[in-house]
Amino acid sequence: MSRILVTGSEGLIGAALCRKLEKKYKIVHYDLKLKKNILNKKQFKKNLVGCVGVIHLAGESRVPRGFKYPVRTIKNNVVGTGNILGSIKEIDPKIWCIYGSSREVYGEKKKKFKETDLLNPINVYATTKYASELLMRNFCRNYGIETFVVRFSNVYGGLNDHKDRVIPKFMIQAMNNRNITVDGGKQVFDFVHVDEATDGVVKLVHQIISKKIKTKTFLLVTGKGTNIMELAKKIIKITKSNSKIEIKKSRDYDVNYFIGDPSGSKKNLGWSAKISLESGLRLYFKQMKKIKL
């Protein structure tokens, strides 16, 4: 049974991904919640021994924290990624690595982005993701390590998500009949359910293991954009809430528009998103009702 190390294994994407991969592979969980830190290279190398691959999802995952703690975010995301790639180089360059990147690397244009489009990060978090993508590319070119990049877009649907991210925040506010606070209100995003985002990664892992993959970068998106005000209204309707929408000032460092083109992942992975936002929100609401908010 192939042994795969997953960093950020206890997070929103990591936990869901590990549950799926454990059906076929031996998974090494690596997460700060388990007192395992990607900045501790000695510790990481010890856990890496015997692995055929790494799925790197750890590090700072949120734009506001990147804005508030820029140096810490650079250290966690860029130095952490360097530690992982350096460890692979030293232990066994035949170990492949998938990096969990973000749609934030594109910056903002009112178009459907493809994998091959120019990257233009506009905040610290996005810049660290871009820098890590470059490290992946250069460790592949310079040291022969097989690396891949998966760009996620507004993944939602897990109970272990950060409560101040947009969908959990709106859902909690609606379920408690509090005002839904919207920053700006003109944003348009491509929301992907965590079950489908992780299906894409699983398909990539299977193809790497079977030596069938040639493409290096994948964009896991629905191809459909949803306005943030429309999202708030959908959640109010689904939860049958008495909440009102309260518009606040937008944040200067945010990307306010992103829709991705899913055709590359459909062609190269055989992956496409099928869960509509409405259905995904209903599934999430059903989960949320089972816990104390």
Cα radius of gyration in angstroms: 19 Å
Q: Biggest sheet: strands, sense, closure?
A: 6 strands, parallel
Q: Order of strands side by side in the largest beta sheet?
A: 2-1-3-4-6-11
- Report helical residue fraction: 40-55%
Uncertain spans: none
What is the chain-wise order of helices and strands? EHEHEHHEEHEEHEEEHEEHEEHH
The SS-based structural class is alpha/beta
Task: Indicate the topology.
Elements: E1 3-7, H1 12-21, E2 26-30, H2 41-48, E3 53-56, H3 63-68, H4 70-91, E4 96-102, E5 112-113, H5 124-143, E6 147-152, E7 155-156, H6 166-175, E8 180-183, E9 188-189, E10 192-193, H7 194-209, E11 217-220, E12 226-227, H8 228-239, E13 245-248, E14 259-260, H9 263-269, H10 277-288
Parallel strand pairs: 1-2, 1-3, 3-4, 4-6, 5-14, 6-11, 7-10, 8-13
Antiparallel strand pairs: 9-12
Structure characterization notes:
The mean pLDDT is 95. The protein has helices at 12-21, 41-48, 63-68, 70-91, 124-143, 166-175, 194-209, 228-239, 263-269, 277-288; strands at 3-7, 26-30, 53-56, 96-102, 112-113, 147-152, 155-156, 180-183, 188-189, 192-193, 217-220, 226-227, 245-248, 259-260. The relative contact order is 0.14. The protein starts with a strand and ends in a 5-residue tail after the last helix. It is built from ten helices and 14 strands. Helices cover 42% and strands 17% of the residues. By secondary structure, the protein is an alpha/beta fold. Helix 4 (70-91) runs parallel beside helix 5, helix 6 (166-175) runs parallel beside helix 8 and helix 8 (228-239) packs across helix 10 (277-288). The longest helix is centred in the first third of the chain and has 22 residues, at 70-91. The strands form five sheets. Strands 2-1-3-4-6-11 form a six-stranded parallel β-sheet, with helices on both faces. Strands 5-14 form a two-stranded parallel sheet. Strand 1, helix 1 and strand 2 form a beta-alpha-beta unit.
